[in-house]
């Protein structure tokens, strides 16, 4: 994701046009653009509800094969690693450690539209899709975000408008 800084919102908007030109695959339903046809196909499933990748063990379905592959790991081993806060169980200590961070009070990535804050930038970007869908973010000018709450530096938040699905 692009995170370039700009001294004015005008320079940022000029820069955002570069991203928009690169997004040649556009969703007919919501207008979101993507740089790859495969990413557009995956995105369209968010509108249609299509989940063509099914778990043969429990029947749960997914929009992408990579998500199914990740899910299948839960059936492969016992969940021996348990969160001390909420008792949720995990197959690996890595997953447990990642989960435990959600219980931390310090969430340094606040939403500029609502009061929620997030531990990681990717979770903030995922959350921003709600505001995009609800029409609260609709044009490049809405993506201008002052850094550090008030100084006059701006960054490119292209990832808030175009979410790459992996």
Highlighted features:
three-stranded antiparallel β-sheet, 166 residues, alpha+beta, zinc ion binding, Double Stranded RNA Binding Domain, 13% strand, metal-binding, DNA binding
Show the helix and strand layout.
Elements: E1 5-6, H1 9-22, E2 25-26, E3 33-34, H2 37-48, E4 53-54, E5 61-62, H3 65-76, E6 81-82, E7 89-90, H4 93-100, E8 109-110, E9 117-118, H5 121-133, E10 145-146, E11 154-155, H6 158-161
Antiparallel strand pairs: 1-11, 2-3, 4-5, 6-7, 8-9, 10-11
GO molecular function: DNA binding; zinc ion binding
Domain C2H2-type: 25-52, 53-80, 81-108, 109-136
Protein name: C2H2-type domain-containing protein
Would you state the CATH class? Alpha Beta
Shape: globular
Number of distinct beta strands? 11
Superfamily (CATH H level) name: Classic Zinc Finger
Question: How are strands sequenced across the largest beta sheet?
Answer: 1-11-10
Number of helices: 6
> Compute the gyration radius: what is it?
19 Å
From the N-terminal CA to the C-terminal CA, the straight-line distance is 13 Å
**Major β-sheet profile:** 3 strands, antiparallel
Low-confidence stretches: 139-155, 158-166
Roughly how much helix do the residues carry, as a percent range? 25-40%
Please name the CATH topology: Double Stranded RNA Binding Domain
Question: What structural class do the secondary elements suggest?
Answer: alpha+beta
- Provide the domain count: 1
What fraction strand?
5-15%
Structure description:
The protein has helices at 9-22, 37-48, 65-76, 93-100, 121-133, 158-161; strands spanning 5-6, 25-26, 33-34, 53-54, 61-62, 81-82, 89-90, 109-110, 117-118, 145-146, 154-155. The chain has 166 residues and is an alpha+beta fold. It has one domain (5-161): Classic Zinc Finger (Double Stranded RNA Binding Domain, 2-Layer Sandwich), CATH 3.30.160. The chain has a three-stranded antiparallel beta sheet. It starts with a strand and ends in a 5-residue tail after the last helix. Residues 139-155 and 158-166 have low confidence and may be disordered. Pfam families: zf-C2H2 (PF00096), zf-C2H2_6 (PF13912). GO terms for molecular function: DNA binding; zinc ion binding. InterPro entries: Znf_C2H2_sf (IPR036236), Znf_C2H2_type (IPR013087). Keywords: Metal-binding, Repeat, Zinc, Zinc-finger.
